[in-house]
Design goal:
Elements lengths: L2 H26 L5 E2 L4 E2 L8 H5 L2 H12 L4 H14 L4 E2 L2 E3 L5 E3 L6 H15 L6 E7 L2 H4 L13 H11 L4 E3 L3 H6 L15 H15 L9 E10 L2 H6 L7 E8 L4 E6 L4 E3 L24 E6 L6 E6 L16 E5 L8 H8 L3 E7 H6 L1
Parallel strand pairs: 6-7, 6-15, 13-14, 13-15
Antiparallel strand pairs: 1-2, 3-4, 4-5, 8-9, 10-11, 10-12, 12-14
Length: about 375
């Protein structure tokens, strides 16, 4: 046998061993539901049906499932990104390596029909709540507010275009709170984490001031709080997702009122009760952002010492977790719903608890692309 043939045979055998190993790992490993590294739910095996096969959804969802559940996925992401960074690449796995140590998640242009369906869902869900004052905040991500830090010629759709489209499509009974200008005016401050996809507590505070202005409520100044740095070793979801290394960690600050506001925090579906909206033990975990409310939950009820009879329902993603603590000084009861995990009728929740204020809060990427 010639040397060239031997070489090809060895490569073929190694390839078969690799493929066999991947298949075996897939067989013995169980699917993960949530990725702590990326702070998101992972794609699960799609249900095979004629309709999904015919319209192509099954193939698309199955590709996402295989990608999310690939054996040793985090390891291979790290190997890929280190190799590409050594070659001067500024983007990996949908994350840009930007100036000043920032990692920014790429924003993809959403399909118009997908955007319309999201807005139609909001309009239809809350049109039958005429006695509720409704507000909507769509938070721009760092890739828009800090776009001057992006690598040259980095392709990213313009989030502001779609923020304005959502604003124009909402029913008149939903008050859109535009916070882009506020965040942009403060872009030189530390308002987004460098290694995580969330805004910082300072960014959330700026949005809180804007919401209070729209609600006709006097916001608390920063001197109302003890501003406490609780960690300076936070590596967030974009650090893990991108695989980029040799980046300085983030710090997390808590704005703690100088007088006690929260009397009870009830995690309704889990049957747990706490006297704090902060889970300080989570500062010892990988995802330190879960210090806020302990992460995401189906339904949380917060009772405060503010006896003004005002009640607020918040429909949200995780961006709201660091925002909610600013609201405990203005409402007697706050109900927090994450629709990804809560599947009950919101109108029943509003009616049964006589809720008179509603806030819908999402970041642009989650709202339009998730």
């Amino acid at each position: 046998m010639r040397k060239q043939d031997s070489y090809k045979s060895i490569l073929g055998i190694l390839l078969l061993i690799y493929i066999g190993g991947v298949v075996m790992l897939n067989m013995v490993s169980t699917d993960k539901v949530f990725s702590e590294a990326e702070n998101r739910r992972l794609e699960q095996a799609p249900t095979l049906s004629t309709s999904q096969v015919m319209d192509g959804r099954f193939t698309t969802n199955y590709e996402k499932y295989v990608s999310d559940q690939f054996p040793l996925r985090d390891f291979w992401v790290g190997v890929k990104s280190k190799s590409e960074k050594a070659l001067g690449k500024k983007e990996n796995n949908g994350v840009y390596l930007a100036r000043d140590g920032y990692l920014m998640e790429k924003f993809e242009k959403p399909e118009e029909k997908h955007l319309k369906s999201k807005v139609d869902e909001i309009n239809s869900n809350f049109s039958n709540m005429p006695n509720v004052d409704a507000f909507f905040i769509l938070v721009p991500n760092s890739v828009k507010v800090l776009e001057d830090k992006l690598p040259p010629y980095a392709p990213a759709a313009d989030e502001l275009i779609y923020i304005n489209k959502v604003k124009e499509s909402l029913d008149d009974n939903i008050n859109f709170v535009d916070i882009y200008d506020t965040l942009y005016a403060n872009k030189d401050e530390y308002i987004y984490y460098k290694t995580d996809h969330h805004w910082t507590t300072k960014g959330a505070y700026l949005a809180y001031e804007k919401l209070m202005e729209n609600m006709g409520i006097e916001p608390h100044g920063e001197d109302y709080f003890h501003i406490k740095k609780v960690t300076d070793s936070f590596y967030g979801s974009l650090y893990s997702k991108s695989g980029f290394r040799n980046i300085d960690p983030d710090s997390i600050e808590l704005y703690i009122p100088k007088k006690e506001e929260v009397s009870k925090v009830e995690f309704v579906e889990e049957g747990k009760v706490s006297d704090s909206i902060y889970d300080m033990e989570n500062l010892d975990k990988k995802d330190k952002y879960t210090v806020f409310l302990g992460g995401n939950h189906p339904l949380i009820k917060i009772n405060t010492n503010i006896n003004n009879g005002k009640k607020l329902l918040i429909i949200k993603d995780s961006y709201a977790n660091s925002f909610i603590p600013f609201l405990t000084g203005h409402f007697s009861e706050i109900y927090v719903v994450d629709p990804r995990y809560y599947d009950k009728d919101l109108k029943i929740l509003v009616d049964d608890n006589k809720i008179d204020n509603l806030l819908i809060m999402y970041n642009v990427k989650t709202f339009l692309n998730d």
